[in-house]
Amino acid sequence: MPQRRPGLIALVSITFIAVSTAIRLMLLAMTPKGAGLGAALLLKTAAMGLFFDLVTLSYALLPVALYLILVPRRVAGHRAHVWLLRLLFAAYLGVLVFDACSEYLFFDEFGTRFNFIAVDYLVYTQEVIGNIKESYPLAPIFSGIAIASLSGAWLLRKYLDRGIQVTFAGPYRRVGALLIVPALLSYSMVHVSLSSISYNNFANELAGNGIYNLFAAFINNELSFTRFYRTKPQDQVNSRLRTLVAERNNSFVNPSSERFTRAIRGEGPEKRLNLVVVVEESLSAEYLGSFGNKDNLTPNLDRLAPQSLFFTNLYATGTRTVRGLEALTLSIPPLPGTSIVKRPNNSGFRSWGEVLNAKGYESKYIYAGHGYFDNMNAFFSGNGYSIVDRADFAKDEVTFSNIWGVCDEDLFRKAIKEGSKSYAKGKPFFSMVMTTSNHRPFTYPTGRIDIAPKTGRKGGVKYADYAIGRLIAEASSQPWFKDTVFVIVADHCAGSAGKTDIPVKKYEIPMLVYSPAHVKPGRVEKMTSQIDVAPTVLGMMNMSYKSDFLGRDVLKDSGQEPRAFISTYQKLGYLTEDELLVLGPQQYAAQYQVDRKTGEAKKEPVSDKFLGDMLAYYQGGDYLYQRRLNRLR
């Protein structure tokens, strides 16, 4: 008699849905108070969450389908077969419990479910596994996972054995073939953007499924702008972009060309000063006393701020280090998908390093870790920089290191040595120095600060600040110090979770430009984007150069409204003084009136003019990138 219901499949499915629901409830409990999740929105979230759980289940059942199709009937009734399925079911439960633990830790760290960050981390297993080992008690965690999965399999053994008998007593090969259909339909009809059910980002995160999001991020690592986003006619976009990048001291090299190469004219005698750009890992503006923090985490930066040109309204372009490096180096808005740093064929740009190389500088990218991580070595070496990374540190140059690299003190001492090498050759130098100490597991040399290592973000911030103080103190004794400009800027903020599409407050970062002999202290309150840093600093040095940058020198009045670019890997934001426009896949668009001081946002109709300005930068930037129009010939 044919089976009336797929017993084994039902058990696998019920278990999957039960664990997925438990994970969603766990993440809901972790969502901050005031997230705006009302009863109606929670019901909508639960419904869409169940839909994505079922979609993910359709893929999870594919191994079961293949097993049913391939296992011969003579094997199905054997006792060894039952034990094999028991072991496979225990392993399956182990995967589900592991996913629950992983989602808890990921949500706790990033405020989101699995996304492109998780994909990037999976590529670099040595660093990520090392980071996990140094951050979490793995033995108890994996022991708990093993105990939970084996206990679950034992408790469900009767249901499992009955399910095996029911399933393999009927036409199981036909059932296996039918199981393939839902997965095919899901692949052709479902997109991860469907989980964006509201303008509340926490609801959107809860409406998804972590496993589905992980694989979707892997597949969509580079998104076609013209295919997935709102667009306007390209000639109209390019024309508007030409207007927006115009400044009083520049002109297009070839106005009839599609290229945006401009000649920038310095306004005064050129200052061939050394330049050290310290890119501080995860240094949100909210941690600095100069921005109102009361925890005394940054005494050195707070002391330097009034001695520097202090930028108080600077916004990071994204949520990853590679986004910050892309913006600082190429001065281009973030394109959807992964950063250009991680993409193939990412060399030959007229980068900040190339601009200064043409002036006779030695440009170096100095990194505390191994530069193969996130493709940094390939990107920087292909765009005008020499590489100094963990492999270039002698044993006696390392006093402390963790999985991410040497501590900030060691990194800065190396940067000073590299600067001295260039100075000895009579060459000005440009060093982009990327730190790592303000990163989980937050380990650093003991005895430096009053917060013990491995106790959290505050310790990482305070040690990073301590190392900055040591950098300035030790550099000040060098013969090249007087003629050196120090730029201290964050790569991104420590976190980007919020209830709106792109929470504006989570993108605020500090920047200090310090050079006692050459930079007059002051505060720059004007809104600044990370892509404006290179042209602004070059402008301070009165440099004349050719540029393909889409950023602007914010210290010169261009007559254009201040704006900034903020993004996740799929959603792109265009921010002005009090407006935010967000674009996403599937022609998504949402405009908000924002209070940048509080981060509060109120939805309003999309302005076509505002959309036109945003597309000029984003669609225009994508056009230049795809056609290699912003590269050196």
TrEMBL record:
Which cellular compartments is it found in? Cell membrane
Keywords, sorted A to Z: Cell membrane, Membrane, Transmembrane, Transmembrane helix
What residues does the Sulfatase N-terminal domain cover? 274-542
How is it placed in the membrane, per its record? Multi-pass membrane protein
| UniProt xrefs under Pfam families | Sulfatase (PF00884)
Transmembrane feature ranges: 7-30, 50-71, 83-107, 138-156, 177-199
Q: InterPro entries from the entry?
A: Alkaline_phosphatase_core_sf (IPR017850), LtaS-like (IPR012160), OpgB/LTA_synthase_biosynth (IPR050448), Sulfatase_N (IPR000917)
Which named protein is this?
A: Sulfatase
Q: Which organism is it from?
A: Geoanaerobacter pelophilus
Q: What is the lineage of its organism?
A: Bacteria, Pseudomonadati, Thermodesulfobacteriota, Desulfuromonadia, Geobacterales
